[in-house]
Amino acid sequence: PNTTSKYPITARPPASESLPPPIPGKANATLVFLARNSDLQGVLKSMRSVERHFNSRYKYPWVFLNEEEFTDEFKADVMTMTNASVQFGVIPARHWYQPEWIDEARAEQGRKAMQELDVIYADSVSYRNMCRFNSGFFFRHPLLQPYRYYWRIEPDVEYFCEINYDPFDYLEENNKTYGFTITLVELHRTVLTLWDAVKEFMEQYPQYIAENNAMRFISDNGGDTYNLCHFWSNFEISDMDFWRSEAYTKFFEFLDSKGGFYYERWGDAPVHSIAAALFLDKNQLHFFNDIGYQHSTIMHCPQQPLFLKNSCTCNRVHTIDYRQHSCLMKYNKMLTGRW
Ligand code: GDP
Ligand code: MN
Predict the structure, then answer these.
(1) How does residue 259 score in pLDDT terms, banded at 50, 70 and 90?
(2) Residue 272 and residue 34: Cα distance in Å, rounded?
(3) One-character DSSP codes across 18-41
(4) Taking the domains of the chain in order of start, what are their residue ranges?
(5) Helix 268-279 and helix 246-258, axial crossing angle in degrees, nearest 10
(6) Structure pTM?
(7) Overall CATH class of domain 15-336
(8) Relative to the CA of 65, which ligand 1 atom is closest?
C-alpha cells in the first residue's frame, strides 16, 4: 500500500513506525561517560534516555571513566541500564591532577578572584581537572584506543526525539569530524587570556590553520578577538582521530603550557571549539539539528518538520537556538558565508 499520505502533516506517526529495525551499529564508535560515583542517579537517568531513543537498537558499547575506582554499586546499577557492553576505567593520575609545574599560589589567587565575581565553579580545582582532562586526555585513555568515533554523555541529560539513524555512520559517510547540538557564548571571565594564546599559536604554526576554516564563527573581526562562541561539549559526537592529530596535540600542549586551565578556568568546550573552527574545513562541522537534547536548563528542540518526523517530546518554543546566548545564527551565517 502507498503510505506517503497516510498521516496528515499535523499527526504523529505511531512511534513504532518511526523506528528502524534493531540492527547493531557498525561504526567504530563508543558512548563515553566521565562520572563520579556520586553522579550515579544522574548517570542512570541519562543512560535510560540514550538507550530508549537510540542505543537499545544500535548497541554501541559504553565506556565509563573516573579518576577513582567505580564502586560495585555504581557498576551493577549501570549495567542494568543497557544490553550493550560496558567498560569501567580509571584515569591515570598524570592525566587528571594539577601538574607539579603549576604555580599553586597563582592558581589559588586566580580562583579567589573569580569567586568574587560569582563565576560558576570559580573555586573548584576538580572542575579544572575535568576541563583539562576533557581537553587533552580522554581520547588517550587505554579503553578508548580501539575507537575512532565517540558520543559524549553527561549525568542528567535528556534526549527528546527518536534517533532513527546512526549519527556515527552519518559522520563517517559525510566526512564530518565534529558534531554538536547546542552552541553558546562562554563566560568571558573564565577565558581571559585564552585567545592571546590561540593567536600566538596561529603565528607559530600557520600550517595547521585550515584554508576554509570557521574563524568567522569564533571571531567577529577576522581573528583579533574571540567572540566567546563555542559548541557545548557536554554533547559531542565526534572523531577522536582529530584530537589525536598532530595539529590538536601541539595545540593542547601549547595551551597547557600556559597554565590557563588552572590560572583561569579554560573549559574544554571553548578549547575543542576553537580547534575545530581553525584546524578543520568548516564543512567538517555538523549541527545535529534533529537531535532534541537538554542539559541543565538549556535545550535544543527541533522545529517542524523534524519535530513530528522524529516523534520529539520537547517544548519547541523553549529551544535555545533563537535566543541571545545561542551562537547558532552566527554559525549558520558563517557556513553560508553571508553576514
Ligand atoms: P557542567 O556540565 O559544566 O556543569 O559540569 P558537570 O558537573 O556536569 O561535569 C562535567 C562532566 O564531568 C560530567 O560528566 C561529570 O560527571 C564529570 N565530572 C565533573 N567533575 C568530576 C570529577 O571530579 N571526577 C569525575 N570522575 N568526573 C567529574
Ligand atoms: Mn554537566
Answers:
(1) very high
(2) 17
(3) GPPP-----SSEEEEEE--GGGHH
(4) 15-336
(5) 140
(6) 0.94
(7) alpha beta
(8) 26
